[in-house]
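Hi C.,

You asked whether I'd gotten around to modeling the 323-residue construct. I have! Everything is below, sequence then structure, no commentary in between.
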Amino acid sequence: MNEGPTTEARFLHRHLLGIEGLSPQEITLLLDRSEAYVEQNRQLDKKKSTLRGRTIINLFFEASTRTRTSFELAGKRLGGDVINMSVSDSSLKKGETLIDTAMTLNAMHPDVLCVRHPDSGAVKLLSEKVNCAVINGGDGAHEHPTQALLDALTIRRRTGRLSGLLVAISGDIMHSRVARSNIHLLNTMGTRVRVIAPKTLIPADIEHLGVQVFHDMTEGLTDCDIVMMLRLQTERMQGNFLPSNREYFRFFGLDYEKLANAAPNALIMHPGPMNRGVEIDSLVADDFGRSVIREQVEMGVAVRMACLEILTRNLGETAPSNL
């Protein structure tokens, strides 16, 4: 396995709180290191001792089987000691503040905190109160950096590049941290990005992020190389954003009729969990030749292994803490 000797020395950030602000070189280094772990995870012996003696705490204030399991596997395959904190059983339910929790965990001297929180900015606040590295596992509608990295890795492995591709991100853009992180990453890497959604699910200032906005699937999908569908995040919706799930699928659900407008053999992506028959048709989601949804899950473990390794190697070094 290629050890990538210069990767860790050139990625100088203490935390990974978002994609915004990362350079193309830093993103490439993370993706290149992840590539090595893809191959390791396909071996019979998947475990290394890279993080032996290191402690990783998964602190999830929102339920997420997929992301938490991925972080847990990543830490264990690198030989680290992994602790999953169940917030429902913690002192937060007894009135402890986020800052109190951060100070309590900091006193236990962990090496990495992997944090998911329903409020935008909460993970950054926590990172300012601890001495260890912090990885953002998703904060509100702000960012989900490791999801964007695994999506980029999936695309790069299938197409051989990121620059010059045309990617459509379709669905609940308004409430999606996945969309925001992907937009930052893809724009940074020279990818053209479109967003497709009803007007009620498009943020008012989305054009400022460097994307084209479409409210029609036929127009938005035309000639796209990648079609990335997003889940309707009804848990974040306050008010009436949609008439019905059936009506939404009719106009914005991905089926073969709409997909025919994209480039031939366009890849189909979804961060999961999927609402089949709402934002994506089951036949499309399970299309073995074009859907890379399962590959995204596989890439997630490799990406999180790379992030854990690189950030733990940076502990003790002088590093910017704003990323």
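If it helps when you're writing up: The longest strand covers residues 133-139.

Thanks,
B.
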